[in-house]
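Write out the 3D structure for:
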Amino acid sequence: MADRSAGDGRTAGTVTGAAAGAESTTEIGRRVLRLRTERGLTQRQLAEPAYTAAYVSTLEAGKVRPSEAALRHLADRLGVSYEELTTGRSPRDATRLRAAVTDARRALATGAAEDAAELFAEVRDEAERLGFAEERGAALLGLGDCALETGELTVARDHFEAVERLLAGEPLPRRIPAIRGRAVAHLLAGELRYSCYLLESAIDELNASGLHDPYALLLLYTAAIAPYMDMGAHARAVRAAELALALAPSVDDPGLIARMHRGVARTLIAEGRTAEADASLAKAQELYEQLRIHTDLAHCHWMRGYVHAQDGNLERAERELRTARDMLASKRAALFTVQVEVELADVLRRRGRTADAEALLLPLLARTPAEGAADAPGEPDDAADEVGLTADRGAVHAGGAHRLLGLIADERGDAEAAEEHYCAALSLLERTGAAGDLADLCRLLGDLLRREGRLEAAMDAYRTGLGHRAAPGTTTLGPAPAEPPM
């Protein structure tokens, strides 16, 4: 990979006598002097038999432009590679940095994202100093993933965009993990259409250019399922799941395969195939347990809780959601934690424990990054206190929280509070384009207004809801992306 951020201030690559300028000549001379001194060699010992001590002295002083043959001779005598002598970058350093990235990835999988971010930052800084673009990009990608987990969505996007800039000259498949990360950040912020746009544009570009990379396509199709489902584009979500399943045999990455099974489960749930969805999640859970990827394993428990809730098995649903909540809280995955709490509150309300549900929901909407709120009774104290649900962070779940609070108020006869929460939810969800949630919310608001005798307002609410259901499986995104040759 070409590196345009080399620590010594020039583009990395082969340095020949014709290519080495005055600045690089000086740096090479200093490097030769340092390496010779470290090895206890005299200038004559380094030079012979092909060159003279005077030549080495002139070279070390930066007064001569070395030829490629001279550099290869000196590298051999100094016991280093030609690349290390000409660029200052050692293959040993590259191996060490890649091992450090692996360690940071393991820390992110099994521990807190903040701790992993410190490791990634160290790799990023050292890779930048040494001029290793590939390792620097891997560290920036890791920092973006850490920020996603902690709910710092703007920070995450900045890191992913930095990776894309760094790899701008590389083939598109190399940039796909960063594009996928940026799309997920926009999804979590509630920007569903833009998330889809990023993913579909990358898919089209891959297919149009003939770069049918199975790993890159599987990454993109798997990531597209969630925003498609949230927007009500069920047909596209199902097709993305089908293409992902077809690509899976060509990809040797158990973590990505597990993520695919999670996405496929969402489409199965929407079709009422809950037993198949649970089986798909069981496959994902088994892989995550083998890989010890705790956050994704928590997401499996989260999804299985949702499956059980859809089946009406509320006791099992609560158990799975609490497991997911506790696992995410232990990793200080703040945004994911509060999103699970919204779905847990829904189960609690359906089990008749409305006071517990309300006590869980109100702090989620009150929390800010600067000031936390007390945990609900019986809930552990953790980093979920550090982040709340807002219009630009977890907007879909923020709308869901207001919807649930509206239902609770409605059930106890407080029509004014119910309408306030429904309208707050409507405002949030209209920004996201979450079609199914919008349609259901308009129905609830219309029913409330009708009971209050406000028939014209109720009709307006129903019409709005019908608009979101008028064309099932469609979006404002335009034609679906081209499909790869399978």
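Residues 22-88 form a domain with the 434 Repressor (Amino-terminal Domain) fold (CATH 1.10.260.40).
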